[in-house]
Amino acid sequence: MSAEPGLDAVVDAIAPGRASVRVVAGQARIILDVSGIDSADHAELEARVHAAALGIEGIESVQIALTASRPKRMLIAVASGKGGVGKSTVSANLAIALQRRGRRVGVVDADIYGPSQPKLLGVEGIKPQARDKVLQPVPTPHGVSLLSMGQFVAPDQAIAWRGLKAAGALGQLVDANWGNADTLVLDLPPGTGDIQLTMIRSHRPAGAVIVSTPQDLALIDARRAIDLFVQAKVPVIGLIENMAGYVCPSCGAVSDPFGRGGAEAAAAELGIAFLGRIPLDIAIRTASDGGMPPAAGNGPEALAFQQIAGKVADWIDAR
Description:
The chain is α/β, with parallel strands linked by helices. The protein has 10 helices and 15 strands. It has helices at 5-14, 42-54, 87-100, 117-120, 163-174, 194-203, 216-231, 262-270, 282-289, 302-318; strands spanning 19-24, 27-33, 61-67, 74-79, 105-109, 129-131, 134-136, 138-139, 145-148, 183-187, 207-212, 236-242, 246-247, 254-255, 274-278. It has an 8-stranded mixed sheet with strand order 8-9-5-10-4-11-12-15, sandwiched between helices. Helix 1 (5-14) runs antiparallel to helix 2 (42-54). The radius of gyration is 24 Å and the shape is elongated. The two termini are 43 Å apart. The mean pLDDT is 86.
């Protein structure tokens, strides 16, 4: 038996385009799509639909099933072949710059042995809560949300976990309640080991951004990181050259203590995009360490991150 026209209209007035209605022998069976609606509001919406359906003549009982589709999100991995190249600082600023371009962004701090995102994003000491055994990301002052293992341990406490346990914990961060976030920036641990491989296989990033400094040794390791994603068939969005050029704050002279152009040349050789250079600037370090990444402001230090975020956003939009 098809649904009563009156019931269809009443339910659609409360939840436009969200309900599938069927009536069998006086029993209304309603499937209600609550995708994108805060879980705290589910009960109220269900109660309103239930009461309205019972008010329709001929309806003796009402059964409502709630359903929600999992939102599609772009998972963007930020990786490096070695530590000490500023990957986490780049991840935080990239996430903020993407958010300022209109994307809804979350940050997953998967750098389990050196989780620095709580400090970088200004939420140190704030622990995430769980609702129905699902983690709720912590909002930051910069418009992005964050989950990090650093939120669950003391700042000076080591996380001495083997690969499988670490990967399992990180999986809970990725599978958290990210709400309406459309992009997750995944700050991976440096290197090309078990954790990186497990995370890539389990959660399959849409693309990867590789961070390197200009010197040859860093670029050798960056090539290894690129090869890891190539083998896993994850597209490499491009390569960033960090700590590229130092401007003397006193005289304005520019020097290149780590060299210049190595990452751009490597990108050209490997056939991947070169996303841009980020200067070696004390202002970037001090602002980021103070929980106010430069990408959140409008100073000259923000420009490089904004330009790189523009290229990453274009790559995302093309997909």
